[in-house]
Each structure stands twice: as structure tokens, then as C-alpha cells.
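Support request from a user on the community tier.

User writes: "When I paste my C-alpha cells into the form, the page sometimes reloads and wipes my input. The last time it worked, I copied everything first. Here is what I submitted, just in case something in the input itself triggers the reload:"
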């Protein structure tokens, strides 16, 4: 279970930079969010991963979204800031840059068969593995919906 201990950095734990995205699409006036199921993990996650050497966070976010969700037709709308926590093994401190992307793409095939893309209405999210990812979406929901209405 993910509790507050995941959000306190222990001394000596190295930091690593990651990037990912909240990918949205609009269908019949409703905003949908792309989430990924990772293997046997309970709940869903946002697509994200390591920033490679020489890569900018936005580039890494695009690459990771394509690798984990199979979505490549992305329009970056804004930065959503940085969230920090321990990684799954509690061996490194993840500093994850999140971006808001818009897509018209509905289907995607992940590079890893253990990842599966699913779309959910922004106001009816499923259980999510990482609490800070749900908080990221919920705290930006009004802004995201307003942006989508403005683009429509």
C-alpha cells in the first residue's frame, strides 16, 4: 500500500529525473484521460519514465507516453509541474515532470505487452496506484476542462 512514507525522502537516497503526461482527448463534449495498466499492479498509472541523458523532460514524456500507451499524436498544452516520491523499489527519489497533452488518437499499442491503455472520463477516474498522480489530475481538472472547451 502506498502511504505517506513514499513521499518523504530518506537521507542518502539518490534523485532521478522522470517525465510523463496527462494525455486527454475530447469525445462528444466529455474530456477523457489516458491511463495505463502496468502488469499486475493494482490500479492505473499515468505514462511516465526516466529522462535519458541529453533529453529534455518534454521529449522524455513524449517518448514514455508512446512506449507505455502507444500514443504518438500528441500536442503539448502546458506543464503541470513536478511531483516527487520514492520509486517502487524505494531505492531512488523520483522527480517527475508532468505535462498536459491533447490527442485525437483513441487506440495505442504499448511497446511492453504488460502495459495496456484505457480511457476514463476526467470526472470518473478509476483506482490509481500512485496517489499523487490522481491528485495531479484532480487538482488540475477545472483547468484541463476549461482548456478543452476553449479548444473546442
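"...and here is what came back when it finally went through:"
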Amino acid at each position: 500500500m502506498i502511504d505517506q512514507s513514499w513521499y518523504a525522502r530518506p537521507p542518502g537516497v539518490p534523485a532521478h529525473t522522470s517525465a510523463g503526461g496527462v494525455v486527454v482527448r475530447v469525445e462528444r463534449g466529455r474530456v477523457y484521460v489516458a491511463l495505463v495498466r502496468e502488469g499486475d499492479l493494482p490500479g492505473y498509472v499515468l505514462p511516465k519514465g526516466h529522462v535519458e541523458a541529453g533529453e529534455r523532460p518534454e521529449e522524455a514524456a513524449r517518448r514514455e507516453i508512446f512506449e507505455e500507451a502507444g500514443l504518438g499524436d500528441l500536442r503539448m498544452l502546458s506543464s503541470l509541474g513536478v511531483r516527487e516520491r520514492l520509486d517502487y523499489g524505494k531505492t531512488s527519489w523520483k522527480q517527475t515532470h508532468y505535462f498536459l497533452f491533447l490527442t485525437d488518437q483513441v487506440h495505442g499499442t504499448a511497446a511492453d505487452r504488460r502495459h495496456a491503455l484505457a480511457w476514463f472520463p476526467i470526472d470518473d477516474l478509476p483506482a490509481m496506484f500512485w496517489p499523487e498522480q490522481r491528485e495531479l489530475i484532480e487538482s488540475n481538472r477545472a483547468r484541463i476542462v476549461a482548456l478543452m472547451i476553449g479548444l473546442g
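Agent notes: The reload is a front-end session timeout and is unrelated to the input. The mean pLDDT is 93. The radius of gyration is 15 Å. Escalated to web team.
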